[in-house]
């Protein structure tokens, strides 16, 4: 099955060898930027389309996970925002840069074993430092993984609704990518145990979901398109936030349960 090892575990996706021109120079720049954290840096990882080798120049964003030896401070978060802004401004081949900050302790904690731990072990490509994924377990595409990765969709829907109501064009463009990608990935993991495989591709994820829920297939395909291209159309976003989102959250809870709460 696609995305799995021969013995049925989710295969780690992405590799630095798959980073294609013109994104290689962007990755080199990001590696230099990591000096901002000095000895506080444990390790750093790329994830998303760039290390999978599917990024499109001028369309794709660059995603980075930074693991620190301490809990992130306000200064760390300010440094991350500065890195995002500098790299995005310097390289037109990326449409946005996103940096996630966590302590290595949280990433490897028991509470995050089937969420952030899985994310590091399966979706992140080591860029520098000691790979935390080496100490994490292997993962199957089962209901436990589904629940712990996306079983909290209901919590973000009110936040999305507020941003949709108040947002101007720039805010809606940013929101559309967040909403669409989250809904497509949640739709895929809803059916993942039945499908029995793994993919991070948005279009493929929408098609897999649609085979099980044909009544929502067209809207999920539209979400996949928006996740790649973005939109500032409040009507299109409203269909996702007020239509697909609430249904998906309810169906997810009924099928897989609700994700364990986090203290952070």
UniProtKB/TrEMBL annotation:
CDD domains this protein is in?
Answer: NT_KNTase_like
The cross-references to SUPFAM superfamilies, in alphabetical order and at most eight, read: Nucleotidyltransferase (SSF81301)
Q: Where is the Polymerase nucleotidyl transferase domain?
A: 42-74
The entry's protein name is Nucleotidyltransferase domain-containing protein
């Amino acid at each position: 099955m696609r995305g799995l090892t021969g013995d049925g575990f989710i295969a780690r996706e992405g590799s630095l060898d798959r980073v294609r021109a013109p994104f290689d120079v962007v990755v080199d720049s990001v590696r230099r930027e990591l000096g901002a954290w000095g000895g506080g840096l444990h390790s750093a990882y790329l994830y998303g389309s760039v290390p999978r080798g599917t990024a499109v120049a001028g369309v794709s964003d660059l995603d980075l996970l930074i693991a620190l030896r301490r809990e992130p401070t306000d200064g760390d978060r300010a440094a991350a925002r500065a890195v995002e802004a500098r790299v995005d401004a310097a390289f037109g081949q990326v449409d946005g840069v996103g940096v996630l900050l966590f302590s290595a302790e949280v990433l490897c904690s028991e509470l995050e074993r089937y969420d952030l731990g899985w994310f590091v072990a399966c979706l992140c490509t080591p860029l520098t430092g000691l790979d935390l994924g080496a100490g994490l377990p292997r993962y199957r595409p089962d209901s436990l993984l589904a629940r712990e990765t996306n079983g909290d969709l209901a919590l973000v829907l009110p936040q999305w609704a507020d941003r949709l109501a108040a947002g101007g064009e720039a805010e809606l463009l940013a929101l559309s990518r967040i909403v669409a990608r989250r809904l497509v990935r949640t739709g895929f993991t809803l059916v993942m145990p039945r499908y029995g495989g793994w993919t991070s591709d948005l279009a493929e994820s929408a098609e897999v979901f649609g085979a099980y829920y044909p009544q929502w297939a067209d809207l999920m395909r539209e979400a996949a398109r928006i996740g790649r291209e973005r939109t500032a159309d409040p009507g299109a976003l409203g269909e996702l936030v007020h239509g697909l989102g609430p249904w998906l959250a309810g169906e997810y809870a009924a099928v897989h349960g609700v994700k364990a709460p986090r203290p952070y």
